[in-house]
Every structure is written in structure tokens, then in C-alpha cells.
Amino acid sequence: MAGIRIIPRLDIKGPKLIKGIHLEGLRVVGDPHAFALDYYGQGADELVFMDIVASLYQRNNLADIIQRAADQIYVPITVGGGIRSLEDVRTMLHSGADKVAINTAAVARPALITEVAQRFGSQCMVLSVEAKRKSGGGWEAFVDNGREHTGLDVVEWVERAVALGAGEIMLTSVDQEGTRRGFDVDLVRTVAGCVRVPIIASGGYGCPSDLKQAADAGACGLAIADALHWRRAGVAELKAHARAAGLEVRL
């Protein structure tokens, strides 16, 4: 049985940690630095920071937050939102990030995926996918925090992005995000069956059985926000549940 990474996801708007449902109806949670330190202390395997309005305003404001976190946190940090160029990637890596998650700019100019992978390594180039179910079946990729259609089929887009150099996929189900109804297991299984890079499932964690279902579908990382932010579960508790379900978990 493959191991699983428990990855707190911190969505940022301005200086605040926020949380929504279906990426909308955002509520302020608190200070992202305090929450990041807490999750690190609890044993998080990695952290994800997403500037959720960056693409809308064509900028990323996370450099200071990442720099502050990286001074005290020694697990891999992924940062996303508004990253549009190699210079943006370089800024984030110099601030202390280990990986960058790119969505909108990759859709607009897929060659950016190859440029990032060649310059900084494919392990650094995370394709961020915001997926919504299509009425006729399958999923469409969205950008701008789930606001804008791309017309791209998620599976076809992921296959293309991996061929271009993406080394990891952060797969967010907009339909499930913030609902506590579980991950979109069909989405994870379908994408995992088409590519051979690590997949982080994001959106929908509700109860312990969701961990094994997502892992069995092919996720090797689980991005969790709602349950952690609102103290419905802690990192150690999630790992204990995963271990009890027979999953390999990092100490």
C-alpha cells in the first residue's frame, strides 16, 4: 500500500488565511503564519499556500508570508496563485518555497510548464487543476479560483501538462471543496490512471474513511483545509486514522 502525505492547505487573501465552499463565500480564519507553524508542529508532511485572488489581480503577495514561514518550517512548501513567469518562480523559490503550483498561466501559455521544469526541475513544477464535473460526464478545468471556464477536459489537460514537464498534480475538486462530503474519488482515480506523477487530492475531506478512499484511488497526498482550520481534526489524528486504515504514513 502506497504511503500518504497529509498536507494542510492554506488559502490566502491579502494577509489573512481564509476558507470557502466551492472556492466561494470566503470566511477569515486567522493569521496564516500562526496556523502554518501549528500544522508544522503537529507533524504536517508538507504545506501548500495558495494566493486565491492573485490571478484576478495579476500578482502574488505571498513572498513575505513564505519567507517568514520558511525560516521556521522544515517541510516542503508549495506556493501557488498568480505565478506567470520564470521570474515569479525564482522569487518564490528564493523566498523559501520548494515547489510552485501553476494553473491560470499554464492554461494561457502551456510552454511555461516546460520552461519551469527545465530551469528548476520537474519536481518543482506542480500543475494546479481546478476541476468541475461536466453535465455530460468528465470534468472541465477552470481557472481564476474556479470562476472561469477553460473548455479543457481535465484528463486531456493533465496528460498534456505531464508530457510538457509537470512533475506533480494538485487536483482540486471545486464541486467537493469545503463541503465535507469526501474527495471526488472518481476524479482522482481517472486522472491517476492516465499519468505517472504524484497526485495531491484537494477538496472535500469530511471523515476518516475519506483518507483511504482517496489513497486507494491513486492519491499520494491529501490537501486538507476545512477540518484542520476549524479544529475538527489535527494532523496527528488524521495520520492515526490513515494508519488504522492500513495506509503507510510518515512519522
TrEMBL record:
Pathway: Amino-acid biosynthesis; L-histidine biosynthesis; L-histidine from 5-phospho-alpha-D-ribose 1-diphosphate: step 5/9. CDD domains: HisF. Keywords: Amino-acid biosynthesis, Histidine biosynthesis, Lyase. It catalyses: 5-[(5-phospho-1-deoxy-D-ribulos-1-ylimino)methylamino]-1-(5-phospho-beta-D-ribosyl)imidazole-4-carboxamide + L-glutamine = D-erythro-1-(imidazol-4-yl)glycerol 3-phosphate + 5-amino-1-(5-phospho-beta-D-ribosyl)imidazole-4-carboxamide + L-glutamate + H(+). InterPro entries: Aldolase_TIM, His_biosynth, HisF, IGPS_HisA/HisF, RibuloseP-bd_barrel. Its EC number is 4.3.2.10. Heterodimer of HisH and HisF. IGPS catalyzes the conversion of PRFAR and glutamine to IGP, AICAR and glutamate. The HisF subunit catalyzes the cyclization activity that produces IGP and AICAR from PRFAR using the ammonia provided by the HisH subunit. This is imidazole glycerol-phosphate synthase. It comes from Verminephrobacter aporrectodeae subsp. tuberculatae.
